[in-house]
Write a structure and sequence with these properties.
It is elongated, with a radius of gyration of 21 Å. Strands 1, 2, 3, 4, 5 and 6 form a six-stranded antiparallel β-sheet that branches. Strand 2 and strand 3 form a beta hairpin. The chain starts with a strand and ends in a 27-residue tail after the last strand. The protein has a single domain, classed as Nucleic acid-binding proteins (OB fold (Dihydrolipoamide Acetyltransferase, E2P)). The protein is 0% helix and 48% strand. The chain has no helices and six strands. By secondary structure, it is mainly beta.
Length: 120
């Protein structure tokens, strides 16, 4: 899955256990400008370094996997957790810059020579 947005926050690398490290990216996603969404992504292990060159305010495209797992507490109540694990981050533009257009600019064909021999 992919999503584009503006980097709101990048955490430092956290050593969760002796063998697990993680880093978080908070992305400001604006589907409705009146109500922006703040989405948390998680980078684990060797993917933590993907966030080294990402800065607050950067426009980025994040590729991620949706993960889910159950958890049962001591009383036997079952809960479910979702995680967005990023695996790729592309910086589209730096802080304050407009995102790159996703289309090619229009081409002026009015001055093109009319010497092709196509039947249509």
């Amino acid at each position: 899955m992919d999503i584009k947005g503006k980097v709101h926050e990048v955490s430092a690398t956290m050593q969760v256990t002796e063998t697990l490290k993680k880093r978080e990216l908070i992305l400001e996603y604006i589907e409705n400008p009146q109500y922006p969404e703040y989405i948390k992504f998680e980078a684990i292990q060797d993917r933590c370094n993907l966030l080294d060159n990402v800065r607050e305010g950067d426009n980025v495209e994040v590729s991620f996997n949706l993960k889910g797992r159950p958890w049962t507490d001591r009383t036997g109540k079952k809960s479910y957790f979702n995680t967005l694990q990023l695996w790729k981050v592309n910086v589209i533009g730096g802080a304050g810059s407009a995102p790159a257009p996703e289309y090619a600019p229009p081409v002026d064909l009015s001055s093109a020579p009319d010497d092709d021999d196509l039947p249509f």
